[in-house]
Amino acid sequence: MNKSVAIPTQVHNQAVAHLLRRDGQEDLCFALWNPSQGSIRETALIFELIPPLQGDREVHGNVSFLPQYFERAVMLARNRKCGLAILHSHPSPGWQGMSGDDIRAEERHAPPTFAATGFPLVGLTLGTDGAWSARFWNRTGRRRYKRKWCEAVRVVGTRLVVTYNQHLLPRPKFRDKLARTISAWGEAPQEDLARLKIGVAGAGSVGSIVAEALARMGASHIDLFDFDIVEEINLDRLLHATAADAAQGRLKVDVMAERLKQSATSEPFQVQPFDLSVVEETGFRRALDCDIIFSCVDRPWPRYVLNFIAYAHLIPVIDGGIRLERKADGLGLKRGTWKAHVAAPNRRCLECLGQYDPADVSLERAGLLDDPTYIAGLPETSHFRSHENVFPFSLSVASMELMLLLRMVVPHLGNSNIGTQTQDFASGILDMDTQPCHPECPFCKMVGLGDNSGICVTGQHKVAEVAREHQRSKRRKTLAHWLKRFGLKW
Amino acid sequence: MKRTEFLAQLRELGFEPKDSPNMFVTFPYTIQVGRFAGRNINLGFQLHDMNPPTGPHVSPRLLPLHPGGDIPHPNGGVHVSPLGGDWQYWSRPFQNWSKTDRSAKAYMAHITALFDFQ
User: Fold this and answer.
1) Coil, strand or helix at A48
2) Taking the CA atoms of chain A, what radius of gyration do you get in angstroms?
3) How many CB atoms lie within 10 A of CB A404?
4) Is the ipTM of this complex over 0.90?
5) What's the pTM value of the predicted model, to 2 decimals?
6) Contact B54/A440, CB-based, under 8 Å?
7) Are the C-beta atoms of B90 and B56 separated by less than 8 Å?
8) Which of A303, A362, A441 is best to mutate for the B interface (most B CBs within 10 A)?
9) What are phi and psi of A87, to 5 degrees?
10) Which residues, 6 or more positions from A71, have their beta carbon under 8 angstroms from its beta carbon?
């Protein structure tokens, strides 16, 4: 199981203010963390610092803490049913290693931490440039604890700043095909962009364009989530899909994965197609392996799940949407708007933005939005009866979403948080709205809660299950056909 | 709000919710207002964490079935319920949920309003 750490920007700023002292000496503090368990990655979500009280630590160039501080911190973690982390600073930039003293201090406190909380001790070190390094101290046997380095530490909020462990995720080497991209913003930002694990939920019109752009601009790890197949009615807006794909009923994620491997400029390049929805438990856990996710879905339940992931699990979600209305006489567009935004701590969430209605989430979870009889009974003007992904508009939304990714990841002189961008077709005006969430928004209160939130957002997705069974049946028939052809039996 | 908290709030309001398969909750309910005021029925809905319950499932059937949304409440959007028997589903999602305190009391106020017709 890979390991990582995520920290909300607010907590990171508090830690920096405490740990990076003006006199240049090291300092330390404890913190609480909640687990976020993905399919192949476990993340510690640091959500609250436990600052030292008078007499809790001694600063002498290095820093050491007294037993009372540890005892207070570990009891707090135990009472709150979460993990304990120890944070300290070093007087140099970048990903930090550990001195002998660092190792002894953390190793010695790993057993009582695990005994009291049931979670491994997590150690973090802060460099002078605000870069973090981190490790888990896992119990490997009776009284034996082993350090497991994290792959990366991400700070999430108005920006997404990731420090990578160079040993586990080394800086990529770029070939000439990325020269022009790198010339736009430099090699270091490209190295950071390239190493992100990026999820694309929804491999439809917008998702296919986003994924293609990511592959071309040097992303090296893309996870695709969609259980749907290519059909003839998709061909006017689904990038790379062909009539042959539709005739064969191929999975959208399989078609995209195949074509992305040809488009990708990063070497190595990994694309994982998952015929899953993020509302299913397995899809949800796969999504938690990502550092950032593009929400290219058009249903309320997956948007709700992604919104939850953005706040509770500290994985920013870039979302967008299109609304088109035809003129009453059927000749031309009455209005068209499309928008894009990022859901992350200190930004407005998808529910407060109106990207989904919680009542519609309940409808979808009850299976009603997949019931043709129910849909047919809805008014003509219902948004569940409209189909608004048209290629040029999808291209616009995808472009806006990709720009938001760059604003979050590539350093620039502007404002990283420009709120929601909404473009109006008729007037050509691009609006920006930076309003925060509603004061009573429940998502703002669950920042960093992770698996300790106690909220279940996933469930059975019957349509996805039927779609997968249909694919399995197709494969069995194909295999049976070829076995028969060669005179073999099933 | 978690499902368990919502159920606890329903009990505090004096209802006796019973868990049923597929995340359904059912309980006896006396209609307070409108054409059916005073009638004792069974009320049900599907309930998940954080989101409002679905529209009400009602037993016995009070209104003629009419799945189409072409006529307004109360007569449109009345479906056969997956609860079977003499249950029916009124498609009345609580679309103002996020403007309320998201409590069981707020949802039951929505239910009361739904029954307020002659």
Assistant:
1) strand
2) 24
3) 23
4) yes
5) 0.95
6) no
7) yes
8) A362
9) -115, 135
10) none
